[in-house]
Amino acid sequence: MTVTLDKTDSVQLLKDKDCAIRTVDMEVDTLEKLKNSIGAELTDALDAMQSAKGRIIITGMGKSGHIGKKIAASLASTGTPSFFVHPAEASHGDLGMITEDDVVLAISNSGESKELVDILNYCKRFGIKLISITKNPQSSLGKAGDIVLTLPNNGEACPLGLAPTSSTTATLVLGDILTTCLIERKGFTKEDFNNRHPGGKLGSILQKVSDLMHTGEEMPILDEKSGMKEALLEMTTKRLGCVGFINSDGELTGMLTDGDLRRCLSPQVLERCAGELMTKNPKTISKDAMASSAMKIMHDKKITNLFVVENKKPVGIIHIHDLLNNGVI
Question: Is the pTM of this model over 0.70?
Answer without folding.
Answer: no
